[in-house]
Amino acid sequence: MENFRKVKTSEEESPLPFTNLPPDVVEMKVKEGSKIRNLMNFAMAQMELKGQRQIVFSGCGRAITKTITCVEIMKRKLGGLHQVTKVRYKTLLEVWENQDPPPGGLAQNLTVHKNVPSICILLSRDPLDPNQTGYQPPEPQHGLQLGDAGEDTSSSSTKGLKRPMPPPSEELLTKKLQVQVAESLRGSGTADYQPDGHH
């Protein structure tokens, strides 16, 4: 394969794995190179300005993490959204072209079928059937603060989400460790003592 270069990738079209979807439901197809800022601007406009009641995020392969990130941002920005998650496999067709064809020969193409994991997540303002597989009820509001949700958070799924944390009490922790080490050394009678991992 060292002489071959990938020239095209296409995804098989398959129906969404949800029942009773409205015909005009918006499907956000998340790709590996998609910018989260662009995806979220469009999705928020659909839900807030155009009054959509449901939206679907889908992605496969390396785009799965970005798909989940978009869903979590959406849930925190809008609140009260019901969620159904479906995981399945999709077939990707990759076309590879020979970069070093034999003299006088034609360039050869190779088509590869790859099965990759895929995720589809339905978010709905309206209640969904809680008994279906993959259902999650709306999260209770508990004071999460969002940073600039317009940032591209592709490098980390938690960047931009800030949870209040208690201030660190390093001074107390250091004193506690000193006491434990001193007591252990006194009891062991040896200078080769190594702490047992209480950091």
Automatic annotation (TrEMBL):
One of its GO terms (cellular component) is nucleus. GO terms for molecular function: RNA binding. Residues 127-174 are annotated as: Disordered. It comes from the Eukaryota. Keywords: Nucleus. Pfam families: Alba (PF01918). It is found in: Nucleus. This is RPP25 protein. It comes from Jacana jacana (Wattled jacana).
